[in-house]
Structures are given as structure tokens and as C-alpha cells.
Amino acid sequence: MTVSFARVPDNLRVGLFFVEFDNSMANNATATQRTLLIGGMLTSGSATAGIPERVSSPDTVGELAGKGSILHAMMTAYQKNDTAAEVWILPLAEDPDSMTAATGSIKVTSAPTATGVISLYIAGERIQLTVVATDTVASIATALAAAINAKSILPVTASAATDTITLTAKNLGLVGNGIDIRLNYLGLPGDERTPAGLELTITAMHDGAGAPDLTGALANLQDRTFDFIVNPYDDTSSLDAMKEFLSDISGRWAWDKQLYGHSFGTTAGTYAQLGTKGEVRNNQHETLMGVNKSPSPTWLWSAGYTGAAAVSLRNDPGRPVQSLAILGVLAPALQDRFELTERNNLLYSGISTFTVDDDGTVRIENLITTYQKNAYGDADDSYLEVETLFSLMFVTRYLRTAVTSKFGRMKLAADGTRFAPGAAIVTPNIIKADQIAEYGKLVWNGYAQDKEAFAKNIIVEQNAKNPNRVDVLWPGTLINQLRVFALLNQFRTRAESTGA
């Protein structure tokens, strides 16, 4: 019998007892699945633009990226849903020469005739102000602007001039146009009403333009893995930059990178606009949630639902994320929500969907990728579900760990070669048997299925051109998700049997 040592030399004559340790059969570790929040930083932030930083709280992000910045709000929403993740931020520089800030306004058209409370919502955050009959339109405008500026989490600054409050987005760019301004979101059930006589005229946020450059900042991530990447930008240039970053050919999913990761984002619009938006995307490493007229901005939705999904996908990548609550976002009004037919059609257009409970709780309905067609333009659902991508990540990393732990320093012999037990030698058949055994563990733990077919179809062979290389065809079948339960209720109105 030959036992292959890595450290204990063969030429020892001194005694007596020597030990080296071999952990090749003891590795049970899994990869750290980090979250990355991407967003523009404010000039008040202390972080260095383009350099990723590990963070632990919204307050920390507020200092690094600026209070009221996109990143500040994203971290707040993310941690409402996931408090166990290792979270990093990637703050982006915003170029004032190529980007403009969105603006909006609130005009106090008439003064109140009775005491009451203004309930103003900006980006889903409520600002309340008590007014009385003696207040003038100018004093109300001044007080309301002060109340807005006092709430540092808000993504806007406010300035008052006579009867008008001008709102300016803190972050530059197109994203600012999506900052919602409205009154009395909760309505009468929430005791929100405009005071008698008071009239406020709202002009929606507009004229924000441009987006930060993602490419250079993404390159600074080097080879650190990030499985959950929250992208607040839904413009084509930003989405395409992320697509290239995660590409199967030259990006993080490429054979020579093996870093993986998935981009989560949100896009806003009507049913028709969302369908059009989704149909021009085709990326298995990208998810876009479709939202219409929510008080909460798209970046909050992105961070919130990613956090909700991340908890589940880290625990079990094959378990469906449907019905998970998304905390920290406000649902659209009832008339602005999509009906079942519309949601089903959006799911055929690359757009993910949500549902809303009677109490306003928002829940994930189905998270899909935007991948819809193969290279020939034909319909392809192989990468439809997010769980498929995360199952592939898990299984591939599991296999890599098994191979590098057991076979990291082995000699390779042809099948049929006879050698001493314990020698650091493997053959294709030994590797094949090990792969079948590892697949059995995946099946037992609920990540894969159909072990018999796997054992029948797996191919492990020495490469014909390179005798030091083993090629493996891995024909695994991933676990599925129960998404639809269809029941034909063939009821009766007359008993067929009178027996006991």
C-alpha cells in the first residue's frame, strides 16, 4: 500500500511519530454570498467614488454616500428585509457636465380656512405639517420647505419663494424624475385629508437627465464575488453595462472568471410601457420588477425585493421566492395595480411581478430574468426563473469545492491502470464515481433530481489532446419549483353511494 504524503519526507531516519494534516475530505464550507448596492453619491459623502466599501448600517451609508442619497435609501430598504447579509456599496460619481437634477414644485394656491394637518408624501416618506386658518400661503410654503429639509432621508432639497416650494433631487440624473410627490396616501382610513380651504398644486419631478458611468466602477470590484447586485438605473446604457459585466463570454459568468452574480432592478411605467421595456431586454443575469405609480421610488423597490429574495436564496436557491413580503415600499393605489391577465402577460415580456394584500403588504409574485429568446430569436425559457440561476451558482460552486478539495494535487492515470491503494492517483472512472456520489448528495439535500439518469448519462474522459486534462459532461437536472396548482373540482349534487 502506498500512502501519498505532501509534507512528511521519505528519507527520515530520526524517530518517532510525525503527523501532517489533510483536509481534502473535510471541507463543508459554502461561498459567501455578498450583496452590492450601486448608486450615485452626493458631494457631502465621505466615500471615494468608484471604490467599493463594506457597510453595516444606513447611518454609515448616509455618511459615506451622503444623507438622502440613493444609496442611503437603498441600504435602509435593504436592511428592512435582510439583516444577515454582508453588504457592500459602490458609490458612483455624478458628472454635472453630463447630468442634470430633476426638479418639481408644490404651490400653495389657497390658504386654509380651518385648522388641519397636511400629509405630504415625497418618495414614499410622509411629511406632516399643522396649519391654521390664520396662516398665509407664503408662511405655509416656508414652513413646509423647512419640514422637508429637516427630514434628511428625503432624496430632495426644498426652497420656498412666496407661495411656491421648489424641490430639487439630491442625486443628479434621470432617476430623479421617478421621485413621487403626492398628498394623503393613506386617505380617510389613515385620517389623512387636506385641511379645509387649503389647495396645493403639485408639479411632478421632471428634467432629470443622464446616468453615472458604471463600467469603470464595476471594474474596481476585481475578483470579489457579489451574488446580489442592486442596480438602481434602468436606462439602456446602464443595463447594457451590467449585462457586459455579468456576461457568459467575457464577464463574471465566463468560464475563466467563475464569479457569477445577478443584477436586480426595477422599472416604472404603465402596463404597455413595461411590456415594451421588457421585450427589448434579453439577459439571463438581469431581473426587472415592473411598478406603476408607487409612492416609493424604483431604487427602494430594487433594494427591498432583493433583500427579501436574498434571505431565501441564500438558505435554499431552489425554493421559490413567491409570496415573500417586501418591507419598506408602498404599494400603488388600487386603481394603479395590474390585474392577473396583465401580470401574466408581463411575465411573458421579461418583467417580474408582485401582489398586494388587503392591508397593503407587498409580496413577490414571480421573479424572472429578462431572458426570452435564444441566439436565433426563438422563444427560450431555459433561464426564465431566478431560482434556476442561483441553483446553478450553488451547484457549480459545490462541485468546484469538491473537486479542488479532493483532487487538487492528484496524478492522473488511464482507466484500467492498477496502482497501490492510498496513492495520490485518480482515473476518469474514479472521478466519475465521485461525481455520481456528489450528485446523490445534491439530490438528497433537494438541489437536484433524477440520480439514475445522471449516473447513466455522465461522461468523464481523458482529453484526447491533453493527457493531463479530464473532460466531464455533467447532465444534472435542477430541482423545480411548485408555482401553479391546478385543480378540477368535479363536484356532485347527488350521492353515488349510501354505504357507511
From TrEMBL:
Listed Pfam families: Phage_sheath_1 (PF04984), Phage_sheath_1C (PF17482)
Domain of life where this protein originates: Bacteria
Residue ranges constituting the Tail sheath protein C-terminal domain according to the UniProt record: 378-491
Protein name, entry field: Phage tail sheath subtilisin-like domain-containing protein
Alphabetized InterPro entries for the sequence: Phage_sheath_subtilisin (IPR035089), Tail_sheath (IPR007067), Tail_sheath_C (IPR020287)
Tail sheath protein subtilisin-like domain segment(s): 208-370
Family in the record: Belongs to the myoviridae tail sheath protein family.
